[in-house]
Design goal:
The complex is a heterodimer of chains A (307) and B (269). Chain A has 307 residues and is an all-alpha fold. Chain A has helices at residues 13-18, 21-24, 26-53, 70-111, 116-124, 131-141, 147-154, 157-164, 176-200, 204-212, 217-228, 230-246, 249-254, 262-273, 276-301; strands spanning 55-58, 62-65. Chain A has a two-stranded antiparallel ribbon with strand order 1-2. In chain A, a hairpin with a 3-residue loop joins strand 1 (55-58) and strand 2. Chain B has 269 residues and is mainly alpha-helical. The longest helix of chain B has 33 residues, at 2-34. The N and C termini of chain B lie far apart (51 Å). Classes of the chains: A mainly alpha (307), B mainly alpha (269). Chains A and B meet through helix 3, helix 4, helix 5, helix 6 and helix 9 of A and helix 1, helix 3, helix 4, helix 5 and helix 6 of B.
Chain lengths: 307, 269
């Protein structure tokens, strides 16, 4: 699969050494500019953030590294509701994305036929209208007295969801349900595309073979299709969960002060309160939590190669 | 009778669920389009009032909006160029050569995609604050090239990996020099992957809000303008721009499809 520029014969040590130095340096010249960019503007900032999180001081007197780890504890005790809410909302949105995205990916991969490209375009195209404009459109869709609220009210669904605490009375906007709806909507394409890619790779003859062996469609799905689509499920889940956990746009535009997520806190601590150590600590905790959850998830789901 | 219709229902359940999801995805775009013909009362364009073409006749009629739009376009173009050049180079190095530190470099490429955006945004801001950099156009551009890079690498890598190395060997056998082989054989074959990466980078940069919000200072890009308008009042012109972007995107993608299917047809004859 992967290629080397050297013919197989030159794999042995002496032959490799014979290759001109100039040529052996080619990959490094190709890599250096981009890698330096990532080291300086991605890796180094993480180091700066780590150092900021253990500083104390004020904006007027300046901040100094004092190894004040209390900031982490204070940030956790002060903002754990927002943390839990972020993980809860992101988790729910990811589950909904999988539930909604799977049938559509399946449809595109196996049933769309000559409509396949059109449906794919319809999945990708909404991407190109600024996501903020589309999120604002949800305000119109979910507005009080609008059609969505009307239908949910008539079906008495809002009574149930209000009892569960997802909505309030006959409102959807400014409730957890609106935020989760926005998150699900915004990250759905990130679920559909990897799912579609892995479903499309499945050989249709496997379905026929399962049918020949008297498997019902449900069994075929459970034993053949779903396991083979696992790489797509795993990368789709990660691509929706990670950005959703750090998102604050949906919570701010569609939610209320009771639905604030940890991203909002980091943003306001950094840009409004200017309490850099707390903001950096919060951001580090979020990163650690997400990385730990992702690692555990990948271990359990058993797919190591993602990209 | 009942079991028969149940079976039919089950057969069409997947299709119905899929179409429901598709409708869910497209609904906001239809609302954006529909409300671009609204004549709103008050500052917010959220409830339907009256049909009007005012906003379409005067798309730049609101202060600062088109300025922010052109700034976003400029940043997106430069970010696309920067990340596509750097990313393509990295992708070629990773696929074509074996060298030490390959694993480490692969993780360095993967990490920005696996990091919540706020974390990247906030850490970059601490760097700029510590360096005393002036926040604005350049800091936005630096940030955008940084987060688009990984996506370009992934897109180009996928294409270069599926290339048949025998095509390049054939070119060399026909006495093409390394430069000629690269320009006449390698680059044209890799072009769709590079184009996909560039398109992705453009879309990501143009639409980015979170990272820009942290590193823009007082500079206002189009997403930041929209964000601000959610508090101040949303002019109908925002919907006009949103609709135009959607239509252009559909046309570009359809055009790309047409070109690639033509090419496929012409090679098969």
């Amino acid at each position: 699969m992967t290629l080397t520029d050297a013919p197989p014969a030159s794999r042995t040590e002496p032959a490799v050494r014979k290759r001109p130095v100039r040529k052996r340096l080619v990959p490094y010249w190709l890599l250096i500019p981009g890698i330096i960019w990532l080291l300086v503007f991605f890796a180094l900032p993480m180091v700066y953030q780590a150092s900021t999180s253990v500083q104390t001081g004020s904006l007027e007197d300046g901040f100094r590294v004092t190894w004040h780890f209390r900031t982490y504890l204070d940030a956790l005790t002060g903002y754990y509701p927002q943390f839990i809410r972020s993980l809860l909302y992101a988790g729910t949105a990811t589950g909904l994305c999988l539930l909604l995205g799977y049938p559509l990916s399946y449809l595109i991969a196996f049933k769309a036929g000559r409509w396949r490209n059109l449906v794919l375009i319809l999945v990708i195209a909404p991407f190109f209208t600024s996501f903020l404009i589309r999120t604002l459109a949800w305000k119109t869709i979910l507005a009080d007295g609008g059609p969505v609220v009307g239908v949910l009210n008539t079906l008495h669904i809002l009574d149930v969801t209000s009892w569960l605490g997802w909505t309030e009375g006959s409102r959807v906007l400014a409730t957890p349900m609106a935020v989760v709806c926005g998150l699900t909507y915004n990250f759905l394409p990130f679920m559909i595309l990897p799912l579609y890619t892995s479903l499309e790779r499945i050989d249709g003859r496997l379905h026929e073979a399962a049918g020949d062996l008297y498997a019902t469609p449900a069994t075929t799905f459970r034993k053949v299709t779903f396991p083979l689509s696992m790489p797509g499920v795993v990368s789709g889940t990660l691509l929706t969960f990670i950005p959703a956990a750090g998102d604050y746009v949906n919570a701010e535009l569609l939610g209320s002060t009771d639905t604030k997520m940890v991203g909002s806190v980091i943003q306001s601590q950094f840009l409004r309160v200017l309490d850099y150590p707390t903001a950096a600590a919060l951001s580090f905790i979020l990163m650690a939590v997400v990385l730990i959850m992702v690692t555990v998830y990948i271990r359990r789901a058993g797919t190591e190669d993602l990209v | 009778m009942l079991s028969h219709s149940l079976r039919r229902l089950r057969r069409h359940l997947v299709t119905a669920a899929g179409l429901f999801t598709l409708a869910y995805l497209i609904l906001p775009n239809i609302v954006v389009m529909w409300f671009s013909f609204n004549k709103p009362k008050g500052r917010f364009n959220i409830t339907w009032q009256k049909f009007s073409l005012d906003a379409w006749k005067d798309p730049c009629g609101v202060a600062d909006m088109c300025g922010s739009l052109s700034l976003s376009l400029q940043i997106a173009v430069w970010a696309t160029i920067g990340s596509t050049v750097l990313g393509t180079m990295i992708a070629f190095a990773l696929v074509r050569y074996r060298f030490r530190a390959r694993g480490a470099i692969n993780s360095l490429i993967f990490l920005p995609m696996a990091m919540p955006e706020v974390v990247m945004a906030a850490s970059l801001l601490t760097l700029f604050l510590n360096m005393g950099a002036q926040l604005g156009f350049w800091t936005i551009l630096i940030a955008h090239i940084m987060f688009c890079l990984s996506f370009v690498v992934t897109a180009v890598k996928a294409r270069v990996m599926s290339m048949d190395p025998r095509l390049e060997e054939a070119a060399r056998d026909l006495y093409a020099g390394p430069v000629q082989t690269f320009l006449r054989v390698t680059l044209p074959i890799a072009a769709p992957g590079i184009a996909a990466g560039a398109l992705l980078a453009f879309a990501l940069s143009f639409d980015d809000f979170i990272i820009t919000n942290f590193n823009a200072g007082s500079t206002v890009t189009f997403p930041m303008y929209v964000w601000g308008s959610a508090q101040r009042g949303t002019p109908v012109q925002i919907n006009v721009i949103g609709t135009t972007m959607f239509v252009i995107a559909v046309l570009v993608v359809l055009g790309g499809q047409l070109v690639s299917s033509r090419r496929k047809n012409s090679t098969s004859h």
